[in-house]
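Encode chain A's predicted structure.
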Amino acid sequence: MDMRHLNYFIAVAEEENIGRAARRLNISQPPLTRQIHQLEDELGVMLFVRTPRGVEMTEAGVLLLEQARNIRTLVDQTIEQTQRAGQGRLGRLDIGIFGSAILDVVPKLLMAFHSQYPGVRVVLHTMSKAEQIEALRQRRISVGFNRLLTPLEDIEVRPVLTESLLVALQADHPMAAREKVSFGELAGHPMVLFPTGGRPSFIDKVISLFGEVRVPLTISQEVGDVVTALALVSAGMGFCLVPESATVLQFRNVVYRPLADAPANGIVDLSCIYRKDDRSAVLASFLETVETYRSGAAPAEDRRKGRKTRPRAR
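Encoded structure for chain A:
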């Protein structure tokens, strides 16, 4: 039994007349009659009995019609889903995330991707930079998001946007009243650094900036993530530098101020990473979404400033 036999059978069953079914199928009546007889011979049962007006299904025919329709629907769905999977519109995408990117940029990318590819299930995994790279190599994730990435032979690094750095201060700190804060003014004040763990990291970026402008650091704490760092700032344990995306975190006692004299490299990139040999259609679709965001084709609402901004690509 093949799909052609089932389609012929369904047409005859629905038309209750071989002549009408033949016209519907755009074939002549004798070949259709032979196909129905072949199907009955294969199954070993009568599917139709002749009547003065055409044909009538037997009990076996009624059962086969129900199942044949189900089979045809399942085949059609399978074909459609296979085509969608091949087009990157169906499947699963495992993504490694870490740090401040999940506060602003990554959710926007995920929403944009979901709106265009609702059939793809996205699964997020919180992983450090080293864990993301290892998971990519083990094919446990398909893409990751992180900062300050070292080029690797087997891993592609695609910049998503470049962010300014801001100073996070306790709201009643004397410098909080100023519109901008200079590096020199931060000298001698306790500083909170993040994240602890694998290096190089954002900590190294901050230390190198202070070294470049020749301002000594007074480090009070090194913590695992930006949320903990801002909680310590709120408690008065020091200030910290954060990427602009972290400013969506609105602590009751924390304010953010731009750096007045930031050097040209006083910025930080966010990149997505993936295996160079990954030919997944789902990954290709996601990277198209990333590229759309990166190019600024979809302006993002900056809630903190109340204005629209475009991501700044490198």
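Residues 33 and 179 are 87 Å apart (CA to CA).
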